[in-house]
Records
---
Amino acid sequence: MCGIIGFNGSVNAAPFLIDGLKKLEYRGYDSAGIAVYNGNKTVTEKRKGRISNLASAVKRRDDMCGNLGIGHTRWATHGEANDSNAHPHKSGKFTLVHNGIIENHTLLKEKYLPLCTFTSETDTETVVHLINRHYSDNCLEAIARTAKLLEGSFALAIICEDEPETIFCVKKSSPLLIGIGNEATVASDISAISCKAEKLYRMDDGEIAAVTKTQAVFYDFDLNIKEKATSQFSAERSESEKNGYEHYMLKEIFEQPEAVRKTVEAYLGNKENTLPLINKPERIFIVACGSAYHAGLVGRICIEKLTKIPVTVETASEFRYSDPLTNASTPVIVISQSGETADSLAAIRKAKENGATTFGIVNVPESSIALESDYVMYTKAGTEIAVATTKAYSAQLAALYALAIHFAQIWGTEDNTVLNNLKDALGKLHIKIREALGCEEQMREIAQQLATVQNAYFIGRGIGYALAAEASLKLKEISYIHCEAYAAGELKHGTISLIEQGTKVFAVCSPNGLEAKMQSNIDEVSARGAQVIAITDSHKTKADITVHTVSATHPLFCASTQIVPLQLLAYHTAKFRGCDIDKPRNLAKSVTVE
Ligand code: F6R
């Protein structure tokens, strides 16, 4: 997590740094800081809280004028969010910002810095003291010597008062990009690279770069100069706007039909990457985190139904430390919006160690997971800014449907007429998702009542259970209401003891032949006083409130229409509770630490 930025140009750096940090704020937003070399020395300003706090503090200073600077927006890992733990950190003439985790910082501190005074609780401060300790008169040497000692993940931007024409960058495992034009910018992602940049470089692991106003020179950690090719600018470089919506999350919910249409078109229309022809495997793994894992739960049902091949779905944090039974004949599908989730990236690496073929289903072009997967399917959700994912999740579902159909086709596990019907249905699915958005007013009314409760439950069976899991996560992460998702048949094995008069239970009744079983579960909780809200495309359910969802173009794709009311429910509940919807507490959009 954390976002880093650097500017080296001919105008005042501070406004650019603040603006860049606002674009990177999705990566972490509990504190922020900038450092600017003002022609005489490096001056620093750091503030707990949002970038706006930092911006006001910077405005009040008259010594923060200079053309070279670095900045950071933080998601705390080592030490609480406060002014002194905020980056940049300083030692002697060096000031630096860091994204990642230095795993051996305690050892380094004990071995090399026993007498050093630390002013923060961060792992990062060790790095700047080490550089300073290694420095006599050559910045690059001091940085390279330090980089070789570091374990973990790090993207660093460093400035030194003795070389105020240069930003030094170091990368291992955390992303870092450099844009060069007649000014240079350095950033964790493309959104914060200057629009004046003509050349873009994506740093590789084990690289150091010396970035002046007009060029970047790359080295390995032994300081051998490296030839480096430029990268393409992606089409999504322009800043995303709210376009009249009050929050990015709402805008992104309404962008779902387009996200699904574009994703389906890319793979069913065969416009770009043709999906790979791989041999029929014994078993398939799907690995992901959070909502992407929930998309995987739906993917499993679709792939198993169409291919009859067993699919195991695992959270990446468990998969990476297990002894997964993967081998050359068990493809591993890793799903990730950001393409940078540390556990998911580690899962790809683990799967490859075992000889498995890896598929990334990724939204962010050229992200680490996309680059490291053997095959990549890009979801076409566009930039997602709200921390709680909506359109990327929907695009992941669409990609998984397309992959399931593709597998069934190449392995001959399903009749061609069935597959052609499914393709036809998938091609039209976005139309039904658009119709599903029409339930907003009803969901707003239900949300108004939900906003006052402490707990809620989501139950479902099959795809309905996968949806219950996603709906529960969405509601808890943005409204802070405690909620749980259960396979509907499981509730009576313990949790039903929590149901009392008025407890809200959302029953996600997917069209999977288990509607009667769901009705029994609704009856069980109703009998104990629960207020049941059924989400269903059938008109038969007996519940206190029924939300009639739009039927998908095929029952196998019902998750795509039934998730819409549940997302709107979470959004409006959080809004009634006055929560910070796009930036919920304690979270960040891109989870680049494990
Ligand atoms: C929840 C949410 C997270 C992410 C998870 C994985 O709304 O967004 O649960 O789904 O952190 O992130 P990616 O997909 O970037 O790997």
---
Amino acid sequence: MNLIIFGPPGAGKGTQSKFIADNFNLFQLSTGEFLRKEITNNSEIGKKIASIMNTGSLVSDEIVSDLIEKIISNKIYNNRIIFDGYPRSLDQAKNLDRLLKKYKQKIDIVLKLSVSLDTVKKRILERRNLEKRSDDSEDIAIKRYNTYEKSTEPVIEYYKKMNLLKVIDGERTIDQINKEIGDIIALI
Ligand code: AMP
């Protein structure tokens, strides 16, 4: 089974992805993390990625697609990938379909963790009090939430039309969300 997980910052996407990966023996492909790894490797491609990521822009579709293909084509990860951070646009969604077809795979389910802006603000404030993270200011949180909602909307619509979308109420406790996701996956 391959799945995609969507959720704004503060929705608990990291926690839930880890739960799914551990419980269903899946591999979490977080594009942001993979790109950051390339940067620490200091490879030629890593240097190129760093110069783009440091400006806050998206890395080119080609670079991310090559990275995704490396994982999809690897037999170890065959049919057991959680896509996190990809696709981020309709072009990327169509490219993902093309790659999966090439390696005789498909997406089985798309999960969207849904939370209100008020909850995101509250959670980020709590985290800031605990960890004092410099990127957790309320202004930045609002900006990231709005950018996220706007950019993922067409992609979410795309999967809705394909009947693959499950919207999960992310306002509840971690355990309640774990349970719902576990039940959905067990049915696939
Ligand atoms: P994230 O950790 O998902 O917030 O991603 C961090 C950064 O990695 C983004 O700001 C982009 O520069 C880059 N990135 C991650 N995923 C993608 C993607 N699907 N397409 C293009 N750039 C991406």
---
Amino acid sequence: MVAEKLRGARRVVALTGAGVSAESGVPTFRGAEGLWRKFRPEELATPQAFARDPVLVWEWYDWRRQKVAACSPNDGHRALAELGRRSFAFDLVTQNVDGIHRLAGSNPVWELHGSLWNLRCTACSRNREDRRAPLPSIPPRCECGGLERPGVVWFGESLPSNVLAHAFEVAGRADVFLVVGTSALVHPAASLPEVAGEQGALVVEVNPELTPLSGLVDLRLAGLSAAILPRILDAL
Ligand code: OAD
């Protein structure tokens, strides 16, 4: 059914979450081994935490950068990159900050929550990419001397408005909307599938577990994204 719909689709959107990188070895946030089981978000992922202790926050992000640097794309990332090369318009929207979709060949990737590899100066707002892991010094400093922060979206912060606007626009026009590996608990990302469904898209969830979206989607494919996404491609 998904393959049949995809064959006739003009516009396809995929929204991904931490689950798509789980089989690459990147920890998810919730669930038994999830980051938020071991760490308190308010101590590490808020502007207040950074103001209080930038070194502690940077140590945590540097640890995550090192973990992700050791990970490679899996078949799920690769299948999504391949969808981007098919005849329909394809938008990949992700909540992930690991940058692995790009490594798999997806381009562009609409990163709703920013990227672990971006640094932003708190003084002059300059953005730069730095893929070194570990970073040579913590906390990193901008060439203007200002303190740099991770280029990610923290709790209580707004999402990048251009990315958010694009994501809602394409969700509203999608013929097929794939929701892959997200617990669908964090808004506004979790609203995108609902918008797509209201506008007539076939909404398909790929996740081994139930989520708040599971009862609303048109089709639930219960399983791991690295297994299910290649199967969808094969059937195309
Ligand atoms: P979560 O950790 O909340 O959810 C991961 C989801 O992936 C769960 O529903 C799992 O069942 C599912 N999953 C696990 N392994 C999978 C696999 N191999 N294939 C498919 N699905 C699998 O991660 P997110 O939904 O991405 O925000 O979390 C959303 C946001 O909450 C994150 O972007 C982050 C976090 O706080 C910020 O940091 C702003």
